[in-house]
Amino acid sequence: MKNIVLFASGSGSNVENIVQYFHENSEVNISAVLTNKAQAKVLDRCNRLNINGLYFNRNSFYKTDCVLNILKTFKPDLIVLAGFLWKVPENLIANFPNKIVNIHPALLPKYGGKGMYGDNVHKAVRANNETETGITIHYVNENYDEGAIIRQVKTSVSEDDTPETIAHKVHQMEYEYFPKVIAQILEVE
Ligand code: GRF
């Protein structure tokens, strides 16, 4: 059995997509979804999907080993950041080397780093008249969006594209590729 723990800060559409993708896979267990936002919509999705949803605050993430100890109880084979906006602390990186992955809605290293998330990314891609964008799935290290790249998928950006149409295209790519890459990493496909 391969255990996955998911982290999210917002809506959680990627979380739901990943949970649904592995729903019929008897080799994969979604142990829990952890969030740093008490009101995150992802917790509503957890209730509807009947999966564990846990909220944690800054103290338990950065000042103590609370979240680390909870993670250890799940014995995760992979920790998946799916729209998680906080930097991962050193104690997690050190305890789960090469076991934490993230998806970023752009072609890193461009449009990455602090503050580059959600529509901020797509507005910047539009403003810079980029002709392509895409998704980057990468291992997580102690800096935002800097770990080794696992998979990048590109799509074209036309002059007619708006930040909204770019976001829609990128979200569709996230839903298509993220679960498949996770399955490849866990060798459960
Ligand atoms: C996605 O665009 C993902 O690439 C980024 O955060 C967003 C999360 O969206 N890391 P959702 O909460 O999964 O809908």
The kinds of small molecule bound in this structure are: 5-O-phosphono-beta-D-ribofuranosylamine
Strand content: 15-25%
Rg from alpha-carbon coordinates: 16 Å
Give me the count of strands: 7
Most strands sheet: 7 strands, mixed
Would you write up a description of this structure?
The protein is α/β, with parallel strands linked by helices and 189 residues long. The protein has one domain (2-186): Rossmann fold (3-Layer(aba) Sandwich). Helix content is 38%, strand content 23%. It contains seven helices and seven strands. The chain has a seven-stranded mixed beta sheet with strand order 3-2-1-4-5-6-7, covered by helices on one side. Strand 2 (28-35), helix 2 and strand 3 (53-55) form a beta-alpha-beta unit. Residues 8, 10-14, 82-83, 103-105, 117, 174 line the site of 5-O-phosphono-beta-D-ribofuranosylamine.
Chain-wise SSE layout:
Blueprint: E1 2-8, H1 13-21, E2 28-35, H2 41-49, E3 53-55, H3 58-63, H4 66-74, E4 78-81, H5 90-95, E5 100-104, H6 119-127, E6 132-139, E7 149-156, H7 163-186
Parallel strand pairs: 1-2, 1-4, 2-3, 4-5
Antiparallel strand pairs: 5-6, 6-7
Helix pairs in contact: 1-2, 1-7, 6-7
This protein binds 5-O-phosphono-beta-D-ribofuranosylamine (GRF).
